[in-house]
Specification:
The chain has 7 helices and 2 strands. With 134 residues, the protein is mainly alpha-helical. Strands 1-2 form a two-stranded antiparallel sheet. It is globular, with a radius of gyration of 17 Å.
Length: 134
């Protein structure tokens, strides 16, 4: 919960079950603390970057899509590169919620209709029959 690690290795799972409410809280905290640099979509083009600050990497690059969830917790906790630590600003549980929200951003950025539940795929097909699965 407090280190982002399990048995000394960066954790690839969350220390508690992530609920919809947790994702919503993660989105809220992300929008407050992360968007100035990372932007709302996680692309690394936030307002601070637009004003000349060095851009952070996009959360959508392969390297960051492949890191364990604990990596994001660790970076929020300890900082990395130009990013300073948020350990005194963001509670540990909220750091995990932000990490979960980053995972949701990554998934949504690379999602296809095949990733949607079958009922949703049928509804999409009915609403837009010429747009087959992509």
């Amino acid at each position: 919960m407090y280190t982002g690690r399990e048995n000394g290795v960066v954790a690839d799972k969350f220390p508690f079950a992530i609920t919809r409410d947790d994702l919503e809280r993660g989105r809220e905290r992300y929008n407050i603390y992360c968007t100035p640099c990372h932007d709302y979509n996680g692309g690394g083009h936030g307002m601070i970057v637009q004003r000349g600050f060095p851009p952070p990497p996009s959360f959508h690059i392969d390297r960051l899509r492949g890191v364990p969830a604990g990596h994001f917790f660790d970076v929020i906790t300890n900082g990395d590169g130009s990013m300073y630590s948020y350990a005194t600003r963001v509670e540990p549980e909220d750091r995990w919620r932000i990490a979960a929200y980053i995972r949701a951003l990554q998934l949504s950025h690379h999602a296809t209709t095949q990733d949607a539940p079958s009922a949703m795929r049928r509804k999409l097909a009915e609403e837009n029959p010429e747009a087959q699965t992509r």
